[in-house]
Amino acid sequence: MAERHPANARGEWYIDRRCTDCSAARTVAPGLIVEKDGQSVFARQPKTKDELMMAWRARLLCPTASVRTESHADVPDAVFPEAMTRDVYRLGYNAASSYGAHSFLIRRKHGNAMVDAPRFTRAVTARLEAWGGLADILLTHRDDIADAERYARHFGARVWVHKADRADAPFATDILEGSEPSEIADGLLAIPVPGHTKGSVAFLYDRSCLFTGDSLAWSFEDDDLTAWPDYCWHSWAEQVKSLGRLLDYPFKWVLAGHGGSKGLPEDEMHKRLAALVARLAQN
């Protein structure tokens, strides 16, 4: 077993030194799990029912299996999929190949859609089978593909990706092109947001839920929207412009691949995004 990091709070829950600081555990257990010495650690031991569920989510999603408990307690029911808002779930079981990125599921009457992909595991496929399978996989960009191909093959799903990032998803069946948004299904809009990668795409569901990949996220530490110039692989100037164009679309939820996810009233989310774009444009 890998060594327990000494910065963990004393008690049965801890994170070992294999942690790669992907931040995924911190975004499902904000405040309970924090960054220390270049990795995630438990700031305190979980005590309440909600905190214990947060700890279990961190354990099941950790791509390096670094979140540990010394007890032999059984995994509780309904850790994942995690309900975020109506029809939208976080899938968990994050993949090391996507550096621990989150993936999501949209339950739709005309076929479920996965946004990016977790590692391929029976825990996910069994739930999807029980919920009617998988019609579409929506890839936000080339970094967070993970085991999308295996899920597509297992369920016979269509796979959507932007042409500029297609080289990393040659199995994709549906190719988005250009810079204009396109409605790929009823209530589901693909919005190109080049910057983080040339082919980054945000997907807007039901004029309410914006799946942002690595282009935009919620920071629990700052209690605000955020974006990262240090993790921009194509063009930071283009990414700032892309975030500005998102002001044209109404949404209440930011659902991020890396970083936190958060829901706010539509007008508050718009104000936060406008303020973020203004700050970034000045830097």
Question: Which band does the percent of strand residues land in?
Answer: 15-25%
Q: In terms of per-residue confidence, which ranges show pLDDT below 50 for 5 or more consecutive residues? A: none
User: How would you state the average pLDDT, rounded?
Assistant: 97
Q: Which value, in Å, is the CA radius of gyration? A: 18 Å
| Biggest sheet layout | 7 strands, mixed
Please give the number of β-strands.
19
Shape: globular
SS summary, helix count: 6
**Range of helix content:** 10-25%
How far apart are the termini? 45 Å
Structural class by sheet pairing and helices: alpha+beta
Strand order of the largest sheet: 5-6-7-8-9-10-11
Order of helices and strands: EHEEHEEEEEHEHEEEEEEEEHEEH
Tell me what you see in this structure.
The protein is of the alpha+beta class. A hairpin with a 3-residue loop joins strand 14 (201-205) and strand 15 (209-213). Helix content is 22%, strand content 24%. The longest helix is centred in the last third of the chain and has 17 residues, at 266-282. The protein has helices at 24-28, 49-61, 122-130, 148-155, 236-245, 266-282, and strands at 13-15, 33-36, 39-42, 67-69, 82-85, 88-90, 104-106, 113-115, 136-138, 158-162, 174-176, 182-185, 188-192, 201-205, 209-213, 217-219, 224-226, 253-256, 262-263.
